[in-house]
Amino acid sequence: MLKGAGYEVMDLGTNCSVEKYDEAVRSGIDIIMCSALLTTTMLYMKEVVEHYKNNPTVRVVIGGAPVTQNYADSIGAHGYGQDANEAVRIVERLSGAVT
């Protein structure tokens, strides 16, 4: 959906380490999007958010089947999307394309 909306997407694959996200950030990525399919994988989202909390140029957006807005708020994520359409709207807002 993001590609269709005209955004450049760098798919890092699954089970990404923070170091892999750091490589993407060094190459110019400023919005990291994490998706969880199982509740056990949600815990790592918190680590990713914590890692970037003091970096004002990087935003972390989370989503996935077990993820909720309450969880996104509790870990300090910059955004939560319940589906791909909403993810596009969040990226538009975070990138300043839409207010």
Question: How would you describe the overall organization of this protein?
Answer:
The chain has 99 residues and is an alpha/beta fold. 42% of the residues lie in helices and 13% in strands. It is built from four helices and three strands, in the order αβαβαβα. It has helices at 18-26, 39-52, 69-75, 84-95; strands at residues 31-35, 59-63, 79-81. It has a three-stranded parallel β-sheet, with helices on both faces. β2, α3 (69-75) and β3 (79-81) form a beta-alpha-beta unit. The radius of gyration is 13 Å and the shape is globular. The model has no long low-confidence stretch (mean pLDDT 94).
The sequence of SSEs as H and E is: HEHEHEH
Q: Helix/strand/pairing class, anyone?
A: alpha/beta
Helix residue percentage: 40-55%
- What do the pLDDT scores average to? 94
Task: Tell me the total number of β-strands.
Answer: 3
Q: Oligomeric form of this entry?
A: single chain
Morphology call? globular
**Largest sheet, spatial ordering of strands:** 1-2-3
Write the layout of secondary structure elements.
Layout (H helix, E strand, L loop, with lengths): L17 H9 L4 E5 L3 H14 L6 E5 L5 H7 L3 E3 L2 H12 L4
Parallel strand pairs: 1-2, 2-3
Summarize the structure.
The chain contains four helices and three strands. With 99 residues, it is α/β, with parallel strands linked by helices.
Keywords summarizing the entry:
99 residues; alpha/beta; 3-stranded parallel sheet; 13% strand
